UniProtKB/TrEMBL annotation:
Stretches assigned to the N-acetyltransferase domain: 17-160
Pfam families (UniProt xref): Acetyltransf_7
Organism: Streptomyces piniterrae
Name this polypeptide is given: GNAT family N-acetyltransferase
Stored SUPFAM superfamilies: Acyl-CoA N-acyltransferases (Nat) (SSF55729)
Entry keyword set: Acyltransferase, Transferase
Domain of life: Bacteria
Claim: S-adenosyl-L-methionine is one of the keywords in the record: no
PANTHER family to which the protein is assigned, alphabetical: AMINOALKYLPHOSPHONATE N-ACETYLTRANSFERASE-RELATED-RELATED
GO MF term set: acyltransferase activity, transferring groups other than amino-acyl groups
UniProt-listed InterPro entries: Acyl_CoA_acyltransferase (IPR016181), Bact_Acetyltransf (IPR050832), GNAT_dom (IPR000182)
Length: 164
């Protein structure tokens, strides 16, 4: 697997943004991104009950061990991450301050490269921004749920993407 899947940026805009495989050393940053992104973009969620240390342990022991996980970085700084488990895009989160800069699209492109036959994902029905992002990238609704299968108990959609 190459170290640098995609690059963006130029000498005038600063260091390039790279997507690379996540490492155990990234767990703390990934946990911080996960928590900050959920707080900033999903205010309808119940307050987080897990500590940063618990989320970092989940990242190290579950996400990094069971998923194909990549991070978007600018220099040493982790800006976002994506995790694919089988055909499921299980996680895609960005730092709130770097949204709408193409970083999510870079991470999604790597997920598609990893699973060229197609991807599915789950998104809360209330998450209009995520739904618009995925629809813009060719995902369509393939199922709906009442929230009984997620820990937040919120209605969700299953979206799917298959190559043309």
């Amino acid at each position: 697997m190459p170290d640098d899947f995609r690059a963006a940026g130029s000498p005038t805009t600063g260091p390039a943004i790279r997507v690379r495989p996540a490492e155990t050393a990234d767990a703390e940053a990934i946990a911080a991104i996960h928590q900050a992104s959920r707080r900033a973009t999903m205010p309808y969620l119940p307050p987080q009950r897990r500590t940063h240390e618990e989320v970092a342990r989940w990242v190290r022991e579950i996400v990094l061990m069971e998923c194909h996980t990549v991070v978007a970085v600018r220099g040493p700084e982790v800006l976002g991450y994506a995790a694919v488990r089988g055909e499921l895009l299980d996680q895609l989160y960005l730092r709130p301050d770097v949204r709408r800069q193409g970083i999510g699209s870079l991470l999604l492109a790597e997920a598609r490269r990893y699973r060229p036959g197609g991807l599915t994902l789950h998104v809360f029905q209330l998450n209009d921004a995520a739904r618009a992002f995925y629809e813009h990238h060719g995902f369509t609704v393939i199922a709906t749920g009442d929230g009984s299968t997620n820990m937040e108990n919120l209605p969700e959609l299953t979206l799917g993407w298959v190559p043309a």
